[in-house]
Structures are given as C-alpha cells and as structure tokens.
Amino acid sequence: MNIVLLGAPGAGKGTQAQRLVEEFGVAHISTGDLLRAAVKNQTELGVQAKGYMDAGQLVPDELVIGLVKERLGEDDAQKGFLLDGFPRNTAQAVALDSELSEMGRDIDAALLVDVASEVIIERLSSRRVCRDCGYTGTAADESCPRCSGEMYQRDDDKPETVKNRLDVYESQTAPLVEYYKGHGILKSVDGDRPMDVVYADVKEALAL
Ligand code: AMP
C-alpha cells in the first residue's frame, strides 16, 4: 500500500493516516511532523525551515524532497507508506515520481480528503496536538486522551497564519488533484463527516 494523502490543512489527513497505520502497519510519513521535529531539535534543517513554517509558507522544495527521499529508504517504509503533506506542489510530485521509479516502486492511489474551506478554518482554530505523542485532538481535550500528555495549539494554527496556509493550498497544492487524476489514480472522500464514517469510505475508496 503506497498512498499519497491530499487535502487542505485540517482536512483530516493525519487522523485518517493514524487509523490506517494502526490497522495496516504501514509507515506514516508526514513532512509537517518531520519538519516540526527538526525545528524542535534545532537541526540545520529545522533552523532553515522555521521561518517558512511560522509564516504558513512552503519550506523550499530541495529541503523537503531530501527529507522524504531519506525517509522512504528506511526499513519500515518498505512495506508501504502513507505520505501526508507531501507532495505540496507539482515540482514535489514530479520529484516523488522519479524517486519512486528509481526505487522500482510506485503510488497505488492519491486519496483526496475533501472538506470545504469554511469548515477547515473552524477545525484548525480548535485543533490541539499532544506535545508528547503527536495525537491530534480538539480544544475540548484538556490532556491527551492517548498518553495524558500536554495538548497545545500549533503556532501555525493561529488565525493569522491559517489564511496564508489556505491560500498556499489553493494556489500550489490543489492543482495536484488534476495531476493525479491525469495519472488515473485519484480517489476522493467527503471529509466533512464524523471520522469513523470518513474512515469507512477511505477503506472502500482504497479497496482495503
Ligand atoms: P502540515 O503539518 O502538513 O500542515 O505542515 C506544516 C508546515 O510545514 C507547512 O505549513 C509548511 O510550512 C511545512 N511543510 C510541510 N510539508 C511540506 C512540504 N511538502 N513542502 C513544503 N513545506 C512543507
């Protein structure tokens, strides 16, 4: 199972990915998570990426593509992967195709989790993430329901940055829907429903 997850920030890609990982044991490769870890650990990549992330802009392609290439080579990704938040533009999609073809692998499906932008704005403003295990919850979670860790609001989920992120999504990432449609591998689910219902549709769309 090699899958690319598409959808606006806050569409629920990460949540659906967590469920697929639990059930099928594939590698969850979230470039946002990898970049946040790099920022937290103050690696050279993290220092370079931070300003772009804080502004809700895309981190330069060469940095992110390198990160994904390295991650796809790790052991757990050999069984299958879910790419979450990558590719984010056509250049990244082309780089991914060429890297996978060098590895003798390909993408089985690009799955769009489709949610209207008004819903996205509301969701992002109430999203909270566990500092310890990365669980995604809402402002109603006082502590992490999975590990009791502290829940916090990502800086880039604050209203001033959310608008930039949605603009970036519309102008740079949304065209990937046509890209993967052209490759005949696009699947789509309506993400504006309870997560269990969405998950059932995800499995059906992926024929799992
Ligand atoms: P996410 O958690 O996917 O919403 O990503 C958070 C931030 O990390 C984005 O707003 C970007 O600044 C950066 N980022 C994540 N994935 C990518 C990517 N594929 N290309 C460029 N920047 C990225």
* Unreliable sequence segments: none
Largest sheet, if any?
5 strands, parallel
Helix share bin: 40-55%
Which CATH class? Alpha Beta
- CATH architecture title: 3-Layer(aba) Sandwich
Major beta sheet, strand line-up? 2-3-1-4-8
Summed up, the helix count is 9
**Whole-number average pLDDT?**
95
Instruction: Count structural domains.
Output: 1
Q: What is the CA-CA span between the terminal residues?
A: 9 Å
Indicate the CATH topology.
Rossmann fold
Corresponding CATH superfamily: P-loop containing nucleotide triphosphate hydrolases
Strand content: 15-25%
What is the count of β-strands?
Answer: 8
Main structural class? alpha/beta
Please write out the topology.
Blueprint: E1 2-6, H1 13-24, E2 27-30, H2 31-40, H3 44-55, H4 61-72, E3 81-84, H5 90-103, E4 109-114, H6 117-126, E5 127-130, E6 136-138, E7 151-152, H7 159-173, H8 175-182, E8 186-190, H9 195-205
Parallel strand pairs: 1-3, 1-4, 2-3, 4-8
Antiparallel strand pairs: 5-6, 5-7
Helix pairs in contact: 1-9, 2-3, 4-5, 6-7
Bound molecules: adenosine monophosphate.
What does this structure look like?
The protein is an alpha/beta fold and 208 residues long. The chain has one domain (2-115, 173-205): 3-Layer(aba) Sandwich (Rossmann fold). 50% of the residues lie in helices and 16% in strands. A five-stranded parallel beta sheet has the order 2-3-1-4-8, sandwiched between helices. Strands 6-5-7 form a three-stranded antiparallel beta sheet. The radius of gyration is 16 Å and the shape is globular. The relative contact order is 0.19. The structure holds adenosine monophosphate (AMP). Residues 9, 31-32, 35, 52-53, 56-59, 64, 85-86, 88, 92, 156, 165 line the site of adenosine monophosphate (AMP).
